[in-house]
Amino acid sequence: MVDLHPVLADLQAESDDLDALVSELPDHAWAAATPAAGWTIGHQIAHLAWTDRVALLAVTDQDAFQTEVRSALGALDSYVDDVAAAGATAPPAEVLTRWRDGRADLAEALLAVPDGTRIGWFGPPMSATSMATARLMETWAHGQDVADAVGITRLPTPRLRHVAHLGVRTRDFAYLVRDRTPPGEPFRVELSAPDGSIWIWNDDAEQAVIGPALDFCLLVTRRRNRADLAVTAHGPDADEWLDIAQAFAGPPGEDRPAGAFSSR
What we know:
The protein has 264 residues and is of the alpha+beta class. 52% of the residues lie in helices and 6% in strands.
């Protein structure tokens, strides 16, 4: 079992990095477009603030969380966009405060979750550690959108292991959300970490996915087109997965256009 405390520490570090980036931007820059269609930098941070609040509801008040789920199901195609747009109407300082307070409250609530508890979510129920991992993944992914909007290249960190792990663990979800049957056997996933070491999942599997950890994380968060990444598949099922891999809950994510970014 993965210890919650180091995951929360990495989530805080990931959040702090993004916080430092957006805090340095003038207010008008929050209106800059990001690669997510229709989303500004303000949308990105407002979305993180909202998701932390909803995650807090999932941990502390499942009835209230299920009410949120029903609202989302009632407007499945537009709900997330609408909530982000509404949140982004507030001044940047207010959005930042909301995000900072929400993520701190969520971390405290996750530490209080009893061992073995499964937290209901938009996807499959998860442990407190998995919830923290999911929040780190989403913070990193939306941080990538912000970095792309302002034209900077972020240095990869060992925190990518959490994102990659979630990408591996959500393999079957990517099939199910597309009404496909997942393969019966796991895939070996072999990734080159930022420090030069190798991260491996499912070592004995016959079919494999191999590449840089950064590229794999960009793929499973659907922040880059597969054609622009050095991730290779060995086996037909593994090849199919790379076309649909998705580490986040919700409907199938859209592909970013190939060749849209000259650097990562």
